Amino acid sequence: MALNVKDLLSSGAALTDQALERLLPGPDTLPHSIHRAMRHSTFAGGKRLRPILCIEAARMVAGTLPEGVADLGAALEMLHTYSLIHDDLPALDNDDLRRGQPTCHVAFGEATAILAGDALQTLAFQTIASLPAAPATVVAVLREVAIAVGTGVGRVGDLETSLAPGMIGGQVMDIEGEGVKPTAAMVEAIHRAKTGALITVSIVAGGLYGSAQPSEDTIARLRTFGEKAGLAFQIVDDVLDMTQDSAQLGKTAGKDTAADKATWPAVYGIERSIQDAEQLIADAFDALTPFGEAAAPLKALAQYLTARKN
Amino acid sequence: MALNVKDLLSSGAALTDQALERLLPGPDTLPHSIHRAMRHSTFAGGKRLRPILCIEAARMVAGTLPEGVADLGAALEMLHTYSLIHDDLPALDNDDLRRGQPTCHVAFGEATAILAGDALQTLAFQTIASLPAAPATVVAVLREVAIAVGTGVGRVGDLETSLAPGMIGGQVMDIEGEGVKPTAAMVEAIHRAKTGALITVSIVAGGLYGSAQPSEDTIARLRTFGEKAGLAFQIVDDVLDMTQDSAQLGKTAGKDTAADKATWPAVYGIERSIQDAEQLIADAFDALTPFGEAAAPLKALAQYLTARKN
Predict the structure, then answer these.
(1) Domains, chain B, with CATH or none
(2) ipTM of this complex prediction, to 2 decimal places
(3) Which of A83, A103, A151 has the most B C-beta neighbours within 10 Å, making it the best mutation to test the interface with B?
């Protein structure tokens, strides 16, 4: 069948938005300020990339769209939004503009923004704990997600020997690395943690959710796909940040470079970065070979998102 | 049997501390700054009240100490600690001192403190998702806890008709209420949410964790005990804040009054507040009548904690 990636994107985003609309307390729910702040940032024009990847991973594994998968996607988007709200705070990146709109603390004040981020994290876990699936599946998904958005230690069963990358850990490394000349190892570690961990777990969680007894090989392949594709997306983001202006990006352009932040093109240059992103996508595709035609949507998404212009 | 409440407190605190020591990444785990910040605030001399209540509720219902209950208690303490770290931030209460020690942002900077709070919330949910219990029990506990530490809406099954109090919601109400002359209804709503919800869920979660098939009556009684005793603890806290100096309290005394914060003694006066706390404890005891002698530890704890001097 012919695959229209724009249809995949728009139908996945619509499913996610419906779930978010239902799951987030309404703007007139007391206390008002925090619910309005949570909605302000959640409905600020995000692409719903993580939910869409989750939904398509679940569809690939299950052969159909499992009941409640949009709620799982919505939970992942809440976690992404919470991380952006806190990352934009004056004490962190001090960003006034995000997706062309005032950031949460600019619109609602710093105290409310801190608490709105906190509440989005909580609501994400509440949402996962309320998914209509077998309790063992819910627990497995929740544990994977919690590890992925943490400081990056504590992969269950492997605590002593490996550090799983974690989203908060990536933010900390990013802060600790400011002003230091970025090395290749540092850039990769930050990317894998700060953005890669949540993208990867979106795909892994979709796979866990879509199958009653997921095989280790399936989960490992989804993890590899997520790690490779996630890194490619981030490299493309960094390249766009260096080559486009603020109006095209909807955020302050060149900010990462200005602050001497650790980015892929800062280490490798733009041309090599684009080549690396293409190689990572090829590797990501390889991981999905055993799924055959069922992998077409995930592959199409990965291809499209690394070829994007904003 | 004679019940020594100080033994209950010290053994419960020791169990909790051992679990926290094991569950929190070590101070030399990369990235250092956040793990040290998480430990700084977690091991700053807290009484471990919530874990101890959780442990004793589980023991009462199970007749023994269920495996892993100290980890559940540790997760509750992580949530309490995260809320304190964020509450102390300059944008919120702007407190420099907590339990006689510099607050997290004073010791580690604001960015790290924000992320350390975030990471403690995440680790709490990761810990609950890793408890050695039936998945259905884990999911039930996790959902209760998430609702209790959220904005206060979304009690599952009762969404349209009731607002369950939530910890973050209480913090928001507290901020929104500053400078407004406190009313009795406002004070009670804030107390039930800001501190009451987590205390109550500590007891309810202990009950859920301690029984394979908890009866609705058991959970309802534990909830009533928690709500009444939790409100009594908070009233005693407010009275101590007005009547003691900073050295006795280990934090800045009179701060709540100075900021015209909504507290029980500010509305009712000190004498009436003490009477109310005593009545609440009597009501809390009534809720546990069917448990007979097995309820003695929980009752002794409640009695002791409302009679405390700091």
Answers:
(1) 5-306 (1.10.600.10)
(2) 0.93
(3) A151
